[in-house]
């Protein structure tokens, strides 16, 4: 067991967590029973109490089970932006004994088809602004029933805050078989079925990709999800009087766990934003006395670049942190000067449903992943041999802990490849290269896998390449990263055109096509045409060579 870090362990935190033997949805029932009249959600000045939240979750759960035929273990697509309906839908799916399939709202129709095909989900809960992307799946019969939500239904009070277009848009009426409005479902007044799932049942499948193939569902149980929920409020103590500013997307595991599930576990208040807006964030912090704010580094950089940032009252903040990329030292210093708080960085993956490592709140290190959290055994191994390495030696980060997933849905081969046995225990191979220091702090060096980190969004080149091959003029494509002053790095495609492509195909037109056919964060922002791509003697595409060439260009 790796225990080098115990000397810097947070003084207020236990060394072991005893996890509840209950389902995740029971957390809401507890908080609603304890605090029925307390605000669970503040949504652009409109509120929803814990009692109201539970009642609406129960209504939707009953409708899913009794009207839409959702049974225990069924997968249900959740395709919305951050909103009260996202939270209600998430807990209703769980309360119906089913499994949540969170879908990035930036995904388009072709990407949705993969989620539906892979999980065999026939029911979707969808934001009305995203419905046009879902409708072709209803036309084809891949999805048979959909509940469509208008976020404006939950604007019950006037506000002077800037509203995203998707939030202010009025409810649209729809009339087609298989499609129901959220308001209709809420008016049905259904009661939920008997709760029959426990800690070992499947709970949620956040999707991730590897170096090959389409995105894969990470199978998490109620127990593994509970591990990082309880861990979050134990590492940085939170209570029912805590107020969390939720700016991270809920489909992403950090937002899901730290900004939604953890506050609900303790009965705290979630101040909810659908889209990031630095002016709205500053106003919400001072208006509602926000105490915790988990984010990605680019949000902090944007917030601090506002000349008015110093005008906001930030005195209620007790904890700021997140991940996605290393926090620049100059930005961290400015944040500390303004708030007196260090930015607490952490590290986790979809496969670990958020953090396996977090910096100790009272002893953080800059640009550091942190130390292994509760009951996590983490090692560094040689990538080729699997031999365990020591202090300061760079190798692959592997981890064992209660939050590690059960495997990839319907991918037994990929699951086997993702684990290695050490000292009789199964360790997840993260695909990240790193090392630890004398005190047990872990640091990220590079990636074993081909992953691009664009403003905290993970982009998997193989997935982008497979979609680019649908362009009729593209013969070959290799996706790499290129430096970007704002995003850290962004997506570049090196492309070989077909001989009959025609003279009207330009690099700009390929970029435009990509943005029309895939999520904006995945779509290449730079395209370079070449006559051929480098290949090894066995015919394998030498993507590393192209990546190194790009790094050299950036260096020059």
Key terms:
single chain; 556 residues; alpha/beta; Rossmann fold; GMP Synthetase, Chain A, domain 3; five-stranded parallel beta sheet; 16 helices; 28 strands; 24% strand
Give an overview of the whole structure.
The chain starts with 24 loop residues before the first helix and ends with a helix. Helix content is 30%, strand content 24%. The protein is of the alpha/beta class and 556 residues long. Strands 2-1-13-12-14-15-16-17-18 form a nine-stranded mixed β-sheet, sandwiched between helices.
Write the layout of secondary structure elements.
Layout: H1 25-34, E1 39-43, E2 46-49, H2 50-66, E3 75-79, H3 84-95, E4 99-102, H4 109-119, E5 123-127, H5 131-140, E6 145-149, H6 165-168, E7 179-181, H7 182-188, E8 202-204, E9 207-208, E10 216-217, E11 220-221, H8 222-235, E12 243-246, H9 253-266, E13 269-272, H10 278-288, E14 292-296, H11 297-304, E15 319-323, H12 329-339, E16 343-349, E17 354-358, E18 371-372, E19 377-381, E20 395-400, H13 412-417, E21 419-422, E22 425-436, E23 442-447, E24 452-454, E25 457-459, H14 461-468, E26 474-484, E27 488-497, H15 507-517, E28 526-529, H16 543-555
Parallel strand pairs: 1-13, 3-4, 3-5, 5-6, 6-7, 12-13, 12-14, 14-15, 15-16, 27-28
Antiparallel strand pairs: 1-2, 8-11, 9-10, 16-17, 17-18, 19-20, 20-22, 21-22, 22-23, 24-25, 26-27
Helix pairs in contact: 1-2, 2-3, 8-9
């Amino acid at each position: 067991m790796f225990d080098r870090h115990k000397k810097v362990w947070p003084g207020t935190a236990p060394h072991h967590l005893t996890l509840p033997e209950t389902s995740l949805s029971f957390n809401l029932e507890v908080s609603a029973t304890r605090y029925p009249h307390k605000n669970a959600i503040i949504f652009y000045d409109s509120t929803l109490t814990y009692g109201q939240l539970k009642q609406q979750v129960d209504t939707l759960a009953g409708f899913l089970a009794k009207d839409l035929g959702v049974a225990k273990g069924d997968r249900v697509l959740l395709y919305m932006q951050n909103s009260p309906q996202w939270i209600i839908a998430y807990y209703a799916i769980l309360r119906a004994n089913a499994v949540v399939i969170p879908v990035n709202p930036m995904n388009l129709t072709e990407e949705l088809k993969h989620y539906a095909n892979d999980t065999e989900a026939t029911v979707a809960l969808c934001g009305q602004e995203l419905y046009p992307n879902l409708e072709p799946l209803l036309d084809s019969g891949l999805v048979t029933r959909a509940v469509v939500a208008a976020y404006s239904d939950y604007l019950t009070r006037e506000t002077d805050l800037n509203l995203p277009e998707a939030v202010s848009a009025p409810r649209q009426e729809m009339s087609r078989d298989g499609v129901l409005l959220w308001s209709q479902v809420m008016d049905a007044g259904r009661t939920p079925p008997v709760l029959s799932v426990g800690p070992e049942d499947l709970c949620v499948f956040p999707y991730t990709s590897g170096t090959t193939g389409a995105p894969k569902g990470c199978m998490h149980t109620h127990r593994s999800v509970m591990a990082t929920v309880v861990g979050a409020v134990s590492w940085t103590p939170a209570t029912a009087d805590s107020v969390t500013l939720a700016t991270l997307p809920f489909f992403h595991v950090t937002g899901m766990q730290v900004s939604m599930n953890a506050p609900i576990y303790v009965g705290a208040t979630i101040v909810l934003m659908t889209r990031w807006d630095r002016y709205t964030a500053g106003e919400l912090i001072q208006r509602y006395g926000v105490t915790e704010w988990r984010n990605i580094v680019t949000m902090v950089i944007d917030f601090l670049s506002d000349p008015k940032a110093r005008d906001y009252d930030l005195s209620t903040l007790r904890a700021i942190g997140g991940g996605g990329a290393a926090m620049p030292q100059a930005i961290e210093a400015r944040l500390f000067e303004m708030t007196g708080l260090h930015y607490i960085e952490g590290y986790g993956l979809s496969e670990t449903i958020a953090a396996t490592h977090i910096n100790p709140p009272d002893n953080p290190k800059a640009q550091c992943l942190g130390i292994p959290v509760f009951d996590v055994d983490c090692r560094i191994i040689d990538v080729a041999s699997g031999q365990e390495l020591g202090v300061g030696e760079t190798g692959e980060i592997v981890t064992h802990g209660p939050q590690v997933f059960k495997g990839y849905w319907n991918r037994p081969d990929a699951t086997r490849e993702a684990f290695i046995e050490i000292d009789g225990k199964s360790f997840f191979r993260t695909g990240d290269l790193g090392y630890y220091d004398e005190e047990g702090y872990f640091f990220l060096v590079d990636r074993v896998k081909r992953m691009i980190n664009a403003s905290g969004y993970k982009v998997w080149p193989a997935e982008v390449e497979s979609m680019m091959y649908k362009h009729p003029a593209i013969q070959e494509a290799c996706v790499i990263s290129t430096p970007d002053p704002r995003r850290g790095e962004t997506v570049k495609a090196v492309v070989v055109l077909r001989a009959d492509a025609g003279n009207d195909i330009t690099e700009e037109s390929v970029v435009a096509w990509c943005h029309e056919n895939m999520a904006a964060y995945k779509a290449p922002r730079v395209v370079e045409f070449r006559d051929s791509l480098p290949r090894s003697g066995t015919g394998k595409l030498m993507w590393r060579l192209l990546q190194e060439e790009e790094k050299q260009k950036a260096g020059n």
